[in-house]
Specification:
Elements (H helix, E strand, L loop, with lengths): L11 E10 L4 E8 L5 E8 L3 E7 L5 E8 L4 E5 L2 E3 L6 H13 L2 E12 L8 E11 L12 E5 L1 H9 L6 H16 L5
Protein name: NUDIX hydrolase
Keywords: Hydrolase
EC number: 3.6.-.-
Amino acid sequence: MPHKTHKKFEEVTVSTQPIFQGKIISLQVDTVKLPNGGEATREIVKHPGAVAVLALTPDDRMIVVEQYRKPLEKSQVEIPAGKLDAGENPLDAAKRELEEETGYTAGSIRHISSFYTSPGFADEILHLYAAEQLVKGQANPDEDEFLEIEELTMEQAQAYIREQRISDAKTIMAVYAWQLYKLTGSFPT
């Protein structure tokens, strides 16, 4: 996501201390020089990026998966999503995640938006796609993924948001993008 940096707010990195290197994320503490000349520390989570797919069936339902989210200690209903592999094209990852988690392939898939999930402490960027002209197949989730697939109407998705069965930003954003699509015939750009 290229953009013009506002130099007056820039924090220049003085040093970086690696803290943790995991399979998905790493954590570092940066010492930075502030715009006023002072110094501060920033705890930063590094992430390879991710994709998420708003998959819409021909009868106007959204494909979701329910799975347990350990950080929240509860199950969540979410759109299919997953992290990017090293060097992987986000479009290819979106197709892969849709098929792995749901078994569906898409005759049409297009980019809706890319956004940072938690810019206050992480560099994760998420690429949101819309998939249509779906063909059902066999799901093949990762060994450690236990999912239940469901097809929701717009009304059901909105009820799930109210009930907090859907409470993650990517899925809520996807529902709002779908709502706009239904009203205007196009996704936000």
